[in-house]
Structures are given as C-alpha cells and as structure tokens.
Design brief:
By secondary structure, the chain is mostly helical. The chain is rod-shaped and about 100 Å long.
C-alpha cells in the first residue's frame, strides 16, 4: 500500500467526519464515523493492492501404490454388483506392467499367450484380457489379485508370503 493511498484515505475519513459534524452529530460520533471510513478504506486498499489471499495448494502425490490408490481400490470392492470397472482396470494395468517388466511378455500379443498361461491361471487370464467385465464378484477379484501378486519376484513378497 502506497503512502499516497494512505494519505488519500485519511483525508477522506477527515472529510467524512467533518461533514457528519456539520450536519449536527456530536464530535465523538463524528470521529467514530471518520474512524470507520478510515478502517474500511485502509482494509479495502490493503486487500486490493496486496498479494492474493489464497491457501497454497499442496502438490499431488502420484506415486504408484499411494494411500489414495489403496483407498480407491478398497471403495471399488462392493459387496453387491461386483467390482467397479476402475478397480479392475487398475489390476489389469498392474498385471500388464509386471508381465512386461519382469517376464518380457505382452498381455495382448497372441504369441505370448502360452507363456502367460504358464504363469497365470486360465480364468484369471480371461479376466485380464477381457475389456469389459462388470459382473466380476469380490471372490474372483481376490483370485485375480493373488495371481497378479504372484507375478512379482520373490524379493518383493512380504515375510508372511515367504513363510506361510
């Protein structure tokens, strides 16, 4: 806020107090009106000329397996109506990634089908290869997740998986 703006607001407040006093208001009330005009003017000028008063937006974490993804997956498991399509798409993406990076196999390549069938049960492979399958129940989805988990190398498994 500039010195010129402050001076202008103070002069405006004094003029408002003088006009109020001229029309018959007592001096303390006229000074109160001037004080209110000064307070409102200074506040308005500070808000208008100052930096924006917004909260900073925290950066969005987009690391795979973040808490948000786990929460979305958990909400996607419904007891009625099967598993949500978005949850199933996430499981398919993880399976594609693991097959590609760990075994150099492409889920969509017909030449890799025999090698993939050796790694994944046929029912799970049918779920992973189908584009739309909304009638998938939670138990079958658990089987899909277990098969996708088994695609990981043994160093990625937890202690309970290594020692049942």
């Amino acid at each position: 806020m500039s010195r010129r703006a402050v001076t202008g607001i103070i002069v405006l407040a004094l003029v408002a107090a003088a006009i109020t006093w001229f029309f018959g208001v007592d001096v303390p009330q006229a000074l109160a009106v001037g004080g209110v005009v000064a307070a409102v003017g200074l506040t308005w000028s500070a808000i208008r000329d100052g930096p924006p008063l917004t909260w900073p937006v925290p950066p969005v974490r987009s690391s795979p397996g973040a808490r948000r993804e786990l929460s979305e997956t958990a909400w996607g498991l419904r007891s009625r109506g099967g598993v949500a399509q978005r949850t199933l798409e996430r499981a398919r993406a993880v399976a594609r990634h693991r097959l590609q990076t760990l075994h150099r196999l492409d889920l969509d390549d017909p030449d890799d089908r025999a090698a993939i069938e050796a790694l994944v049960p046929p029912g799970v492979l049918a779920v992973l290869r189908s584009e739309r399958r909304t009638e998938l129940d939670v138990a079958t989805f658990g089987t899909v997740l277990t098969a996708v988990e088994a695609l990981a190398p043994t160093t990625d498994r937890t202690a309970t998986e290594r020692h049942p």
